[in-house]
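Troubleshooting: if your tokenizer reports a length mismatch, compare against these two reference records.
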Amino acid sequence: MEGKLIDYTYVSPLAGYMADFICLKRSLGYKYNDEAYFLSQFDRYWAGSGDGSILLTYENVAPYLEQRDTETRRSHSHRIAVLKQFTKYMNQIGFPCFIPDKVIRYPKAITHILSDAEVSSLFAEIDTYLPKNRDCQNIRLGNGYKVLFRLIYCLGLRLSETCSIRISDIDFEKGTIILKEGTKKDKERVVYLPEGLLELVMKTIQDNKNHLKFESYWLFPGYDPTKHVSIHTIDKRFNSSWIKTPFAATCEKKPTVHSLRHTFVVKRMNLWMEQGLDLNVMLPYLSRFLGHKTFHETYYYYHAVLEAYRIIRTKDTVADDIIPEVKCR
């Protein structure tokens, strides 16, 4: 944050400690203007609490942690984060006190899950796409779209990691792909390709080689073949294909490329529960496959989607233990 340093008057018993804390942060190169403002808010709260001490406990801090009616979630999160840093400082200088660990969670938007009919219609548009400018490069890109979207839908991949697949990370004998880019926390993971999909990948590599006259570093080279196809390009192609389907006009929430990944997860879980398999056993494996940190993140895909309620209500026994139920309208 640019601009002049701002100082506030602190009046609570914590005033001196707050001033020292801010000086410490600024000596380390931080402007600490917004943070000083949030600390001045807590200072006024603490001065009016009537406690008269410097001992911060959960009980006397809890009211300050609640989100205010006029406060955005971002400001709320920032305000609590600043208090957390200050309480850590107090503990470090020898004053044991409560450290807020309240997590400000941002509600995830529910993604549209594609029906079988919508999937068929969407891929029909993707497969019949003909670029207006039918030069060699555009034809090559058009052929690549067919395979790229199938990888996302059939394997539940993220768009970013699909665009950046390297040919060197594909094991054609084992039928696997090592995903390195786009995964959270830069962790590698291995996904297995069905035989039909592996054949399409091999054909794509050969087609690209025929068009480019050399083998690209990337499975999906962009218009500049030294770089992989861009996420923006794929987003545009998905949107252009979707609006041509008969479902686009009546769909309440427009799907995105990420909807293909959500659809993969929901359909996989539906299949397992219809087969009578225990989700407690299967979810950790699916989480690993998807590159999630925990299976709770994976279960959100399923539980938050209204289409899945028919199966959840009749066969699911673990949902309430994992995430609160989302009410249907």
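Reference record two:
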Amino acid sequence: MLKTIGAAVLAGLALASAAPAQKAADDRAQVEDIVVTGRRSGVPMWVVRSDSTTLVLVGGINGVSKTTHWDPAALTEALRKADRVMFPQSYALTASPFRAIGWIVKWNKMGSLPKGQSLSAVAGPQTMRRLAALRARNMVQADYDGRHPLHLSMDLRDRGKGDIDYGRNVADYATKAAKKHKLAEVVPIQRSKAKPVVKDLFASTPGEHLPCLEAALTMAEAGPAAVQARSDAWAARRVRDVLASPADPVYERCWPSGIFAEREVELLPQMKQLLAEPQITLAVLSLRTLAERGGLLDGLEAAGFDIQGPAWK
């Protein structure tokens, strides 16, 4: 799928003439100034430079608290200077309303394990002890041993954040700002039929969702303070603190995140290709995809590209 997006983005691009090359150089300098401002604004952004162009990488997270202040001014200015905005990890699923209704019914039914099955039969004793401890804090319903681990994980994730309300994230802001103000070409969101994705869910076994449950347990045990601290660390551009937060893995290990993980393998060659073209691109990606060990920033650095932005190692 990413190859399709890459082809659509790159098709029809002409070689830069001397005049566009000068404009690109000026824009690159302006983009660098913007990212310097972004260091004060709470938007984790990196400028990756090549001989041909500049690529601006914006690291976002899910679960940004409404009480976490981040100034979108630098992001808006970066959008103004970009020729195109990409959301490589965006994925739109399409399905008929009647099919969707059927899936909702099936999803609700999936919430409880079939008769004769129990969570304790597939989860280890340590997991069950952790659940019992949360039950004592009234953070888990009494019937947790009969719940499907994915549904239980979602409950734990909601309870773990307490009274914290989530506000806008970078991807939402960039999408709306780019379209509303026509700041740059927005690369079409990748689309696919929902059927294969949902089929994968309903064909899965409860045991396949235990990593999600473990992550949700960790978040619930840490509580709202960890959720707020992660959000504030993101706004302060403390990248390693965000990735080390007990509230972070739940957003990566739970369905449907894992289904699209294989698409990330194609991101590095795609970003390299964008750096070979004259257009300035701003790409919004998950912070973990960018900054985890062996992630996109490490790959671009290893390839010899100059990267300016917050520390990620």
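Descriptive notes for reference record two:
- The CA atoms of residues 5 and 188 lie 8 Å apart.
- The chain has one domain: 2-7+16-308.
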